[in-house]
Amino acid sequence: MIISASRRTDIPAFYSDWFVNRVHEGFLLTRNPFNAHQIKRVSLKPEDVEVLVFWTRNPSKLMPFLPEMDAQGYRYYFQYTITGYPRTIEKSVPNPHRAIETFIELSQQIGPERVVWRYDPILLSNLLPLDEHKRLFSKIAGALVGKTSRVVISFADFYKKTEKNLKQVDSLIYSDITQQHEQLLDLSAYMAKVAVAHGMEIKSCAEAVDVASAGVPHGKCIDDALIKDVFGLSLDGKKDSGQREECGCIKSIDIGVYNTCLHGCSYCYATFNHDTVIKNQQKHDPSSPFLLGGIEGVDPALLNSDEPQGSLF
């Protein structure tokens, strides 16, 4: 069983205390995001978890707990996003200088092969024109030399909820780079060249567009090949059917909740409404088996079961 923590929210940044408590208890509970009455018990016992994949912009609160996880035999790696976008677009993410410092500290603690740099999503706009993306990518890559062996890029997706949030950013004029073939290949080729020059393998994430000709092949964020290389585990490489068609990730259980991330990124597909995020924060209890809410009305069997995955969605 692979645990994704999480595509839906930044657990290391905002819910580390909760996660540590759940590891100590040996399980957590999640609700189906499309049917709150469907509840799953997820074991967090080391013998039941093959790999943990953390997605974050700020792992600093979780880092002190990692030696304990190591001692218990957990295998894990990080997908760590650093972009350096303006505050008008990324309201509350860590300062890029501090983010880079923390990235380096994490890499030194657990090894560069277990920290993947993410420069995503790529949002082309008047505030972030092509040359600015090149500058940011090159500068961050230079700062992370020797601290990671892989960088992942993706291009912004414009869902209705995403466009609604983007339109609230003052003076922002954005466009879909995937519909601008020349600029897409130009930027992809530049990033591929910079990545290679800095000792990094580059991959794309969940992209329908093919930029392999520019040196950026399709990749997997939850990657059976990476897991085998780093941990020596041979896992079933079957694609996760719960993800988008373009996503190559292998099957995992995501333990996050939508509308709970406080970073305030206007392009985020997992945050529909910032006011909802604030209201959800009031429902968070670090001692609860749920990320949001308590156990009222929950079947006691789910709280005491020894089954690794409990009832499935």
Description:
The radius of gyration is 19 Å and the shape is globular. It is of the alpha/beta class. Helices cover 30% and strands 18% of the residues. Strand 5 (76-81), helix 4 (96-110) and strand 6 form a beta-alpha-beta unit. The strands form 3 sheets. A 7-stranded parallel sheet has the order 10-8-6-5-4-1-11. The protein has one domain (2-296). The protein has helices at residues 11-14, 16-25, 66-71, 96-110, 130-143, 160-166, 181-197, 224-231, 274-281, 300-304, and strands spanning 2-5, 27-32, 35-43, 51-56, 76-81, 115-122, 124-125, 150-155, 174-175, 201-204, 253-254. This is DNA repair photolyase.
Short description:
The chain is α/β, with parallel strands linked by helices. It is built from 10 helices and 11 strands.
Describe the structure using short key phrases.
313 residues; alpha/beta; disordered C terminus
Mean pLDDT reading: 93
N-to-C order of helices and strands: EHHEEEHEHEEHEHEHEHEHH
What Rg, in angstroms, do the CA atoms define?
Answer: 19 Å
User: Unreliable stretches, pLDDT < 50, 5 or more residues?
Assistant: 308-313
Structural class of the secondary structure composition?
alpha/beta
Counted up, domains total 1
Could you tell me how far the N terminus lies from the C terminus, measured between alpha carbons in angstroms? 15 Å
Number of DSSP strand runs: 11
The portion of residues assigned to helices is 25-40%
Coarse shape: globular
| Estimated share of beta-strand residues | 15-25%
Biggest sheet layout: 7 strands, parallel
User: How many helical stretches?
Assistant: 10
Widest sheet, order of strands: 10-8-6-5-4-1-11
